[in-house]
Amino acid sequence: MGGDQGPATTVPAVAAFLRRHPHTRILLFGAARELPSLDCYGGRLTVVDCPQRLDADERPAQALRHKRESSLWRALAAVATGEAAACVSGGETGALMAMSIAAVGMLPGLVRPAICTLLPTAPGGRVGLLDLGANVDCDAELLHQFARMGAARLQVEGVANPRVALLNVGAEGGKGNRVVKAAAALLETDPSLRYTGFVEGDQVLLGAADVVVSDGFVGNVALKSIEGVARLLLARLRGSAAAIWRRRLLRPLLDSALSFLDPSQYNGASLLGLGGVVVKSHGAADAAGFGYALDVAHTEALGQLPERIAARLAVAGDAPAAG
Amino acid sequence: MGGDQGPATTVPAVAAFLRRHPHTRILLFGAARELPSLDCYGGRLTVVDCPQRLDADERPAQALRHKRESSLWRALAAVATGEAAACVSGGETGALMAMSIAAVGMLPGLVRPAICTLLPTAPGGRVGLLDLGANVDCDAELLHQFARMGAARLQVEGVANPRVALLNVGAEGGKGNRVVKAAAALLETDPSLRYTGFVEGDQVLLGAADVVVSDGFVGNVALKSIEGVARLLLARLRGSAAAIWRRRLLRPLLDSALSFLDPSQYNGASLLGLGGVVVKSHGAADAAGFGYALDVAHTEALGQLPERIAARLAVAGDAPAAG
Fold first, then answer.
1. Helical (H) or strand (E) element with B47
2. Residue A56: beta bridge partners?
3. Fewer Cβ neighbours under 10 Å: the N or C end of chain B?
4. How big is the CA angle at A180 (ends B227 and A260), to the nearest 5 degrees?
5. pLDDT in the model for residue B16
6. Is the Cβ–Cβ distance between A284 and A91 less than 8 Å?
7. Which domains does chain A show, CATH number per domain?
């Protein structure tokens, strides 16, 4: 029911997902009377009727207390009981975060999930960026946990030994604020990580690292700056190409540039650190975008991401002091 | 002598500047034997021979101690004595920062300059972004000073009552880390500022504010993220337009998109908080770019920016507690 379009987006995305992944099942939580007839998937699609609805501006604490019959809570509860392997939602981040913590629970040692998104890189790979806004006041130990969680995330993408970097204002040692310098000292001496040093804001998309770690404040500003300027440049180019004859010539060109940073192509932000797989789809995502978020959840569930993260976090206390 | 190309960039830039501004004079500090004959400007261009040279990787503390006959120190000393109204340099930021503080001095209450750059906005205006990396550990009081300095900077551009915003992870009150929330409380109750609230990373270039304030860590990451994705998208478009017939059609289009975020068009970062005008030109800037930096210094000197900033900082203690 979440996202700007609700079932108009999620239902076609789910149908396409079931075709792409013939061995999966979907539990669709929502108001059954608003959903089309969906009995053509041989039992692989089950609608779970949830009468309650979250308001768009509902405060997380409020939702948590009064909306336990909402589709969001019921879907998260299904992850908690093991009935579902993952939950994907286009709902509000605040409510999703609060309900995820309450329904699914955090892994030991963590208070809030970190938000992680995979962005495409110029060489054709991808980079995991975290945290993107859930933790705006971080100490070095928390950045260290982000590094371990991000490495686990990239491993389920098939990157055997992910290169982990810290986002900083310079590439040389000695640069940065107190927290980043302290985090670098922790990462350098962690034998479970392939730490490659600092990267600057203009290097994130160039493929120098597989995981880029920052506090949620910096990561959020970086991601939104990237999205903002990409949208702006493409809008200007599209505007310049308004004449029809030009548009016909330029469309393939613009589309190829656009696809590189098309938000729907990297839709699906992972909430890392929970006891189960929870993925946030952007509220404005279309069916293709929601489908990407479903694929993210599928990959994370198959790769047993929460278990990997738990294993990586558990060795944190055992890290030797020198590398 | 600074920047990647030294006099090959600065000399033509200076010549063009003297043509644009017939009532100005230039003192050109450098190795006289490396400079072309420059006696055709009716006494408006004076070469000051400086035998010492800063090395590219020279440590600021080292430069400060041993390079007082360098062009950089001598030019800054000329600002300190009032012989020059402003200094523009393409040298290393670290050495420029250290020497500026030592030679020109900070205004009362400040320890280090804040770096401020004007970026073009989509509606065709400009936005001043600070700090861009000089102060990576900031408290709310320092962000408050940045706000006052940024407002003064935009005033010398002719913006009578600049709208000042704080860079944050959300636009609503209650969002952000501890420092940003505390800074918002200070800015809200400062009657000398037109504080308009929070802006997010994707709003900076949309013209919602005239001044956007952040700590140097966040500002640096934001600026570099913007520059990085702009360069990347334009390189991809250029690559796609490699065929000659396409290139001919596309060049005007790309150039108009490029000019929007062409670094040479917003070259010239101001070091705010010093007792005089000091502007940093990007090391890779060409003659046109260095010319923009000269124009920035010219505008700031004519607008008596250091005096404006000093006046704004002086009232800081007198601000009433409620707006």
1. strand B45-49
2. none
3. C
4. 35
5. 95
6. no
7. 1-105 (no CATH), 117-269+303-323 (3.40.718.10)
Does the structure's ipTM exceed the value 0.85?
yes
Q: Tokens for B291?
A: 């010319």
pLDDT in tens, A285-316: 999 999 999 999 999 999 999 999 999 998 75
Tens-digit pLDDT profile for residues B258-297: 566 666 678 999 999 999 999 999 998 999 999 999 999 9
Q: Which residues contact B57 (CB under 8 A, 6 or more apart)?
A: none
Residues of A in contact with B209 (CB under 8 A): none
Give the sheet arrangement for strand B269-272, strand by strand. Answer: B86-89, B277-280, B269-272, B114-120, B126-130, B211-213, B163-167, B194-199
Q: What's the rounded mean pLDDT across residues A116-143?
A: 93
Over residues A106-132, the mean pLDDT reads 93
User: Which residues of chain A does B178 touch, with a Cβ-Cβ cutoff of 8 Å?
Assistant: 137
B233, B236, B238: best to mutate for the A interface, most A CBs within 10 A: B233
Q: pLDDT tens-digit profile of B91-105?
A: 999 999 999 999 999
* Pure H helices in B85-215: 93-103, 140-155, 178-188
The answer, yes or no, to whether residue A240 has pLDDT greater than 80, is: no
| Residue listed under structure tokens 């640069």 | A175
The percent of residues in chain B predicted with pLDDT above 70, rounded, is 89
pTM over 0.80: yes
B305 Cβ neighbours under 8 A, 6+ residues apart: B152, B153, B156, B270, B272, B277
Calpha distance B261→B252 (Å, rounded): 15
Output the six-digit token pair for B304: 């008596």
Three-state secondary structure along A137-187?
A: CCCHHHHHHHHHHHHHHHHCCCCCCCEEEEECCCCCCCCCCHHHHHHHHHH
Q: How far apart are CA B271 and CA B309, in angstroms?
A: 12
**What tokens were used for A177?**
């604020």
Other CB atoms within 10 Å distance of the CB of residue A181 = 17
CB contact under 8 A, A136 and B218: no
- Chain-centre distance of CA A21, in angstroms? 20
Distance, in angstroms, between B29 CA and closest chain A CA? 29
Enumerate residues 6+ apart whose C-beta is below 8 A from A204: A119, A127, A129, A167, A212, A222, A226, B225, B228
B260 within 8 A of A233, measured Cβ to Cβ: yes
Please name the residue that has the structure tokens 């939580």.
Answer: A29
Evaluate whether B105 touches B275 at the Cβ level (below 8 Å). Answer: yes
Which residues have C-beta within 8 Å of that of residue B156, sequence separation ≥ 6?
B299, B300, B302, B303, B304, B305, B308
Q: CB distance A176–B230 less than 8 Å?
A: no
Q: Is the pLDDT score of B322 beyond 60? A: no
The pLDDT assigned to B36 comes to 81
Contact criterion met (CB < 8 Å) for A136 and B257: no
Cis status, amide bond into B137, omega within 30 of 0? no
Chain-centre distance of CA A2, in angstroms? 16
